[in-house]
Amino acid sequence: MRTIENDILKRTCVVELVGSLSGIYIVQPDESGVVLRFGRYVRTEVPGPHIHLPYPIEQVYKTKVSQVRQTTVGYRAQSVGGVFQQGRVQDVDEESAMLTGDENIINVQFNIQYHIKADGAVNYLFNVIRPDQVVKRAAEAAMREVIGKNSLDDALTGGRVKIQNDVAELLQAILDRYEVGVQVVAVQMQDVQPPKEVRDAFKDVASAREDKQRSINEAEAYRRDILPKAQGKAQQVVNEAEAYKQTRIRQAEGEAQRFVSVLKEYEKAEDVTKKRMLYETFED
Predict the structure, then answer these.
(1) Helix axes 270-283 and 199-268, enclosed angle (nearest 10)
(2) What is the pTM of this model?
(3) 225-257 as b/e, with b when 16 or more CB fall inside 10 Å?
């Protein structure tokens, strides 16, 4: 079996050697071919079969431009026997420790996804040394700058989406400035926690903040419940007072009208009216 594998390996090497000497090569659909002539860049080839001048006149470097690459900051995936374990990570505190805008220290673990630009293969290969490491360091610097402009609450709660977008934008600007030749796809914050030494204290603060918010919510619910009732009661009292007012006005008007009627009768026949009123008084 080992002899067969050695034969296949030798034949493959011979085919590649013949191809390189003849100048025939194939760029795969997910690749870009960068051609150097005497060590100087001359062109970039698209996917398909191509021919170049034999080595050492021209050399071809093929790199995958559609492959999404990933690098992590603040943590590393743990492996057992060379196999990475899902969900198991090792913290790297010297990378994750950052200072917020309100002068709090937090540990930010995040990853960056990126790919080589279609026209950036030559820059990725030759413009910078260890481009993947450049992306990692630039991402760490971008995250530190953005975290330094945000508060602790922004980083721990509702401001994470904005922070990720700001970091991606700033990181892309840095990489374009240094002509690294890569496009940032996404920045994802995996875990944001206070340092281990003060984590319990932060939990107490968070618990107190939750208790405060719960009390506010309960008070607001009570206000929404009692206020309409009080307003309804007040309106009821106003309506009753208005009804009593109208009743008393009508009664007074009726009595006044009755007095006016009696006065008119009295003025028509004073003597008769006097006697009638006198008799009615005696009867009463």
Answers:
(1) 120
(2) 0.62
(3) eeeeeeeeeeeeeeeeeeeeeeeeeeeeeeeee
Tokens of 220: 């607001």
pLDDT reading at 22 higher than 60 = no
**Residue 84 pLDDT level (bands cut at 50, 70, 90):** very low
Q: In whole angstroms, what is the distance from residue 185 CA to residue 70 CA?
A: 10
Q: Per residue in 115-150, is it b (16+ CB within 10 Å) or e — as a string?
A: bbbeebbbbbbbebeebeebbbebbbebbbebbeeb
d(CA 104, CA 157): 15
Task: Report the residue count for the chain.
Answer: 284
Going by pLDDT thresholds of 50, 70 and 90, the confidence category of residue 168 is: very high
Distance CA 278, CA 263 (A): 15
Evaluate if residue 113 carries a pLDDT over 90.
yes
